[in-house]
Amino acid sequence: xxxxxxxxxxxxxxxxxxxxxxxxxxxxxxxxxxxxxxxxxxxxxxxxxxxxxxxxxxxxxxxxxxxxxxxxxxxxxxxxxxxxxxxxxxxxxxxxxxxxxxxxxxxxxxxxxxxxxxxxxxxxxxxxxxxxxxxxxxxxxxxxxxxxxxxxxxxxxxxxxxxxxxxxxxxxxxxxxxxxxxxxxxxxxxxxxxxxxxxxxxxxxxxxxxxxxxxxxxxxxxxxxxxxxxxxxxxxxxxxxxxxxxxxxxxxxxxxxxxxxxxxxxxxxxxxxxxxxxxxxxxxxxxxxxxxxxxxxxxxxxxxxxxxxxxxxxxxxxxxxxxxxxxxxxxxxxxxxxxxxxxxxxxxxxxxxxxxxxxxxxxxxxxxxxxxxxxxxxxxxxxxxxxxxxxxxxxxxxxxxxxxxxxxxxxxxxxxxxxxxxxxxxxxxxxxxxxxxxxxxxxxx
Length: 445
Prior knowledge:
The protein has 3 domains: 25-183, no CATH class; 187-245; 264-445, no CATH class. It is built from 15 helices and 14 strands. The chain has helices at 7-19, 26-64, 76-83, 88-103, 106-114, 119-128, 134-145, 156-170, 172-182, 206-225, 232-245, 269-272, 293-305, 336-344, 383-388; strands spanning 187-193, 197-203, 264-266, 279-283, 286-291, 315-317, 323-326, 360-363, 378-381, 395-398, 407-411, 417-421, 433-437, 440-443. The model is unreliable at 327-334 (pLDDT under 50).
């Protein structure tokens, strides 16, 4: 018998799980682990069904409110993302997956419900069948997932091989067209790695990728044969940097070649003078990354030693840790308030859970509603978040004091409220007081 499930009931059951004691024999504990894994998959299936129902309800409300059909649906994925504590981009993907599972892949959804598949593998099945027609996708869905026993012991790589073989057999022309279209997605991305490193990734057709790698490796091997002490990997990395940026390949002292600091290395004057507060390294369209104080000083020092171009700009914070002003503009960087807003968040979108780089300087309170074009009424957003908040029913307001770090409250069309606080500037620590004696408190930070 079906019953209505509400959020309070789910939270009550979660409280029961947390309050229970994890005791018993080894067999009982491993059974508990398996059951909880199945529960996670079941919860993902219910989330997918709820997301589809929510999408339909919100579109109906937007239509009743007179929103033009071409704009109906705007902001819905962002609402789902906030509810799931995910980025707007991932929220869009999750909503798309939910629609595919509910409408076109019922057997995959059933396997998610009973725990035979997890959300990641269900996503792979939906992605790999995206080039097929609805009937062909339904055939693959039934062939692979109608019988839960067929998935026992199947690894992710094997499952991918099965779905790709079926897709290629059903419509080889569609698979070929998809491969050709994929060339349009070629790009270069950067993402953080441990220990102040980063991954620079180039997505390109396999022939071109192999050619780039082979050329770097051949030249690196030639340098090694000539007596260069760097490892093959170091040489390939330094050669790539030299060829792309034009800097001289002088990384033979154990360090990578120095580069012109046209990136934003944001650090406090105490850090520059030898303090320990970390800095933030960012660039145009690249989210900021925290780097230790010594690494920041070495970056600046090596750039000076190599006679590379280094620019300094003064940024000012008040005693409460809020950015309040900046020095005159410099032609190599984006101008004025827009850059201050981007630096305020370390180059990362100000929306909750969003990791995308800042692309737009946005008015928190819209100009049409009397909002001022000022740093106090501004925030740095990515394109998706800026577009999402333009949907009917979304509201934002600053809820902090003008002297404090900005706190922006977002109210979604369903009335849920989310508050985002700007991160502290580099070198800033929140004041902390400890009791040093009767009636006496000492400042320790």
